[in-house]
Specification:
alpha/beta; 15 strands; 41% helix; 374 residues; 9-stranded mixed β-sheet
């Protein structure tokens, strides 16, 4: 089984922190859809099989697309792929777009999971992040999703914001947990290149991001989410029982997936490819039947490094027996040798499985690099 990701890279304006590719104009939306439908048709042989377990509409702001436009994309996908009976179909949505009528129509299309970009329930923080919605519209979005009978609702939150106090972060979490959501993702604020936040920091208009705030907020997050019955199944993702994101989990399990749309990435177990990150060029290249992506065949070492990086992020951890079966005894011995250089407070090693402690999760990328093949 495989997964399909559809990148819809349009926004009405860019958030200050966002490093994902998107454009803040809708003028190319119609020719983009035509190009996207062509790509869907022409890439059906990339995946090992055309049976989808998950389908994910990401962005950008997919909720800028009308129900008619989304239906056209879904119909094109259904023409070339079969769907698992319990397929998870997710769409990322912004609160300011979520009327009850729109949500009910999404439900009729077969979309059964929402990922709502809340980020904060505090107006001052939303203004700092350059979000368009208000705290009130954030709450209304969740209420409307519940009224539309969505039973799998996820929200996004951001922590580690210097301008937000400890109590403000706790209030955000309390507000999130006051609603019967099944899943949430929480990400530490990072300063990406070529973002408004980066430029504002360089101009001295806002303070530098302070890692101590992220550490403080992370421990608060772990404590409060556990009390509310959420499982941290991946460093940034928390779910109630049976509501793990199947789509994201397939990435961490290194299952095959196809990404369509500008800047989308794909992986078919042997190679990885990525589309050009430019809407206008993407449209032109597809219209002219010219290459619109780059591709590389992964080496054994690259497969190994990805296994380490991704599995360390999950609560399943790095299983050395599975690692040995997949990469050989030398790689297992390599891990056992390198793990000795890592602070013992950052991981546990039981039943041949290495898992990060809460402290270790703060330094997951650094720990992974220590275990990487040279």
């Amino acid at each position: 089984m495989s997964s399909l990701y559809v990148h819809l890279p349009f926004c009405t304006r860019k958030c200050s922190y966002c490093g994902f590719y998107s454009i803040s104009s809708l003028s190319l939306k119609t020719p983009f859809i035509n190009a996207l439908l062509t790509e869907i048709k022409n890439t059906t042989n990339y995946l090992p099989q055309r049976h989808l377990k998950t389908l994910y509409f990401g962005g950008g702001t997919p909720s800028l697309f009308t129900v008619i436009e989304l239906d056209a994309i879904l119909n094109k996908i259904a023409k070339y792929y079969s769907f698992e009976k319990d397929i998870e179909v997710t769409i990322e949505v912004n609160p300011e777009r979520l009327t009850l009528e729109y949500l009910k129509m999404l439900k009729k299309l077969g979309i059964n999971r929402l990922s709502i970009g809340i980020q904060s329930f505090n107006d001052a923080i939303l203004h700092f992040l350059h979000r368009q919605h208000s705290a009130k519209s954030a709450e209304n979005a969740i209420k409307n999703a519940l009224l539309a009978d969505f039973e799998n609702i996820s929200i996004d939150l951001i922590y580690g914001i210097t301008e937000r106090s400890e109590e403000m972060w706790k209030d955000d979490l309390k507000m999130a947990f006051s609603y019967p959501i099944q899943h949430f993702s929480a990400y530490a604020l990072t300063v990406e290149e070529n973002t408004l936040l980066k430029k504002r920091i360089e101009k001295g208009l806002v303070d530098e991001v302070d890692d101590t705030h992220a550490v403080r907020d992370f421990y608060i997050l772990l404590e409060m989410s556990e009390k509310e019955g959420f499982e941290q199944y991946e460093i940034s993702n928390f779910a109630k029982s049976n509501f793990i994101s199947k789509h994201n989990f397939s990435y961490w399990q290194q299952m095959p997936y196809l990404g369509v749309g500008p800047s989308a990435h794909s992986y078919n177990l042997s190679s990885r490819k990525w589309n050009i990150a430019n809407v206008a060029q993407y449209i032109t290249l597809i219209e002219n039947n010219e290459p619109f992506y780059e591709e590389e065949v992964l080496t054994v070492e690259e497969h190994y490094n990805e296994y380490i990086l991704l599995r360390l992020r999950t609560n399943e951890g790095v299983d050395l027996e599975l690692l040995e079966k997949q990469f050989g005894a030398e790689k297992k011995e390599w891990v056992l040798e390198k793990i000795e250089a890592i602070d013992a407070e950052n991981y546990t090693f039981n039943n041949n499985i290495i898992r990060l402690t809460n402290r270790g999760k703060l330094w997951a990328d650094d720990i992974a690099m220590t275990l990487f093949a040279e």
